[in-house]
Amino acid sequence: MTDRALGLEVSGVAVDLDRTPIVRDVSCAVAQGGWLALIGPNGAGKSTLLRAVAGLLPHRGDVRIDGSPVGHLRARERARLIGYVAQNPLLPPDMTVQEYVLLGRTPHLGYLAGPGERDREAVRRTLTALDLGDYADRRLAQLSGGERQRAALARALAQEPRLLLLDEPTSALDLGHQQHVLDLVDDLRRTQDLTVVTTLHDLTTAAQYADRLVLLHQGRVESAGAPAEVVTQDAIARVYAARVSVTTDPDGRPVVTPLRGARN
Ligand code: ADP
Ligand code: MG
Predict the structure, then answer these.
(1) Ligand 1 centroid to 157 CA: how many Å?
(2) How far is the CA of 125 from the centre of ligand 1 (A)?
(3) How far apart (Å, rounded) are the C-alpha atoms in residues 124 and 121?
(4) d(CA 215, CA 208)
(5) Is 92 in the pocket of ligand 1 (CB under 6 A)?
(6) What are 31's strand-pairing partners?
(7) Domain spans of the chain?
(8) Which CATH superfamily includes the segment(s) 6-258?
(9) pTM of the entire predicted model
(10) Which of 21, 159, 192, 205 has its CA 20 to 30 A from that of 235?
(11) Is 234 in the pocket of ligand 1 (CB under 6 A)?
(12) Membrane spanning segments where (predicted)?
């Protein structure tokens, strides 16, 4: 890790759901302005870990943002620091896109104060950045899956958090919008020192955007490090029970190609 302050430090985090251990003694960290991707097969505990870090699940262990433990923060302070988008966010169907994204500003409003010009400007900027400018007055029920996913992301970005937690943020997006959204997040972390943690099930994409990967398996950290250290043919074959070939792109990042089984 570099000399930069840590944007997120997770130490010995463990989560039980219905008395079953789901996340077990996970420790990982990422620098301020860094991008950490959680990878691992279905059921590895990625979403559960992300929810624990977001403060949405009781857990053991310690979570620090920009060096400060979040356990002691009041809900409102935590909401200012952490933006979280669930894997399948539930959106209020009758709300317009604009109203919904404006909710992201709630933790910044004074008590009893309504949104001001700065809040509305943050919403406009975010809608434009996410290619939703024409949908501002559309009700959420009347959006496609990909548009809904971008609206959920817009709410988290309008919040202007220090830590952005995104659970499979591109699962409903076409290729162009996937790249657009990931490039936008990448730009924000570079220009605003926003720390980013995503789960991404596409390993090649995870390796292209994240500077650190954590491979989770059965709730534990199987390996962690730079993409080329974590995404190896052996590790992917073992943990995912998958046939893959791992090659390297011109930037030295791993590219994972699935291989079909023997033909009869
Ligand atoms: P991932 O996001 O890596 O696919 P999750 O964190 O969603 O995995 O889930 C991890 C495991 O926890 C899964 O095996 C899932 O079935 C299990 N799980 C999720 N919710 C509960 C629950 N309420 N009680 C028991 N097990 C659960
Ligand atoms: Mg998940």
Answers:
(1) 27
(2) 36
(3) 5
(4) 15
(5) no
(6) 6
(7) 6-258
(8) P-loop containing nucleotide triphosphate hydrolases (3.40.50.300)
(9) 0.94
(10) 21
(11) no
(12) none
Q: Whose C-alpha lies nearest to ligand 1, atom 27?
A: 17
Here the tokens at position 33 are 């302005």
Whether the predicted pLDDT of 27 surpasses 50: yes
The residue whose CA has the least distance to atom 11 of ligand 1 is 43
Amino acid 107: pLDDT: 86
pLDDT in tens, 177-210: 999 999 999 999 999 999 999 999 899 999 999 9
Neighbours of ion ligand 2 (CB under 5 A): 46-47
* Contact assessment for residue 195 and residue 162, using Cβ atoms and an 8 Å cutoff: yes
Q: Which ligand is nearest to the CA of 167?
A: 2
Indicate if ligand 1 lies below 6 Å from the C-beta of 43.
yes
2: confidence class by pLDDT, cuts 50, 70, 90: very low
